[in-house]
Specification:
Blueprint: E1 4-12, E2 16-21, E3 24-30, H1 32-38, E4 43-53, E5 56-62, H2 65-75, H3 82-91, H4 94-102, H5 106-110, H6 117-134, H7 149-159, H8 164-177, H9 183-193
Parallel strand pairs: 3-5
Antiparallel strand pairs: 1-2, 1-4, 2-3, 4-5
Helix pairs in contact: 2-3, 4-6, 7-8, 7-9, 8-9
Protein name: Holliday junction branch migration complex subunit RuvA
InterPro entries: DNA_helicase_Holl-junc_RuvA_I, NA-bd_OB-fold, RuvA, RuvA_2-like, RuvA_C, RuvA_C_sf
Region (Domain III): 151-194
């Protein structure tokens, strides 16, 4: 529903902020990782994960798109709720979590408060393949600078859910055969091959 909020930080705490966006103050829960990235800012952009439960509607904000993406992966695991997901991202960095999941390091995940051995194994079991598909640089934000036609096509294919290495391989062969294709032509041709 919400992608991001960009506004003035009215209040900052290690667990939440109040962000004024167009005269409306939003109470947004954050991780310690996000707090460390925004603590010196007056204005900031937070990527939002809007969680609706029977008894609450809660906003979770993240300084980077990658951290939000990892949070959404974590809470998709049975037994991991939004508060536990936020606790995980506050305990160790998103990069450390991603690395531990990809490499199957149960003990690293298990060290996080509220995560027992079974939950740690479940997180790794359910997310390992997804995170491997995304590649090691999935948490690095995509550059906002003007992208080349193949880079733009690659970004689109990754957002559609295709693995980065596989999509890159297909796009490279398409560009080699005809370097003058538009983004749309590249994506359509790649979709036929993926």
């Amino acid at each position: 529903m919400y992608d991001y909020f960009n506004g003035k930080l009215i209040f900052k705490a290690p667990t939440h902020v109040v962000l004024d966006v167009g005269g409306i103050g939003y109470h947004v829960h954050i991780s310690l990782t996000t707090f460390s990235q925004i603590k010196d800012q007056e204005n900031c952009k937070l990527y939002i994960s809007f969680q609706v439960r029977e008894d609450s509607q809660t906003l979770y904000g993240f300084a980077t798109e990658g951290e939000r993406q990892l949070f959404n992966h974590l809470i998709s695991v049975s037994g991991i709720g939004p508060n536990t997901g936020r606790m995980m991202l506050s305990s160790i960095t998103p990069e450390e979590i991603q690395s531990a999941i990809i490499n199957g390091q149960v003990q690293v995940i298990q060290k996080i408060k509220g995560i027992g051995p079974k939950s740690a194994q479940r997180v790794i079991l359910e997310l390992q393949d997804k995170l491997k598909k995304q590649g090691p640089d999935a948490l690095i934000p995509l550059p906002i600078a003007k992208q080349s036609v193949p880079e733009e096509a690659l970004s689109a294919l990754v957002m559609l859910g295709f693995g980065k290495p596989q999509a890159e391989k297909v796009l490279n062969s398409l560009v080699a055969s005809d370097p003058e294709q538009t983004v749309e032509q590249l994506i359509k041709a790649a979709l036929k091959r993926l």
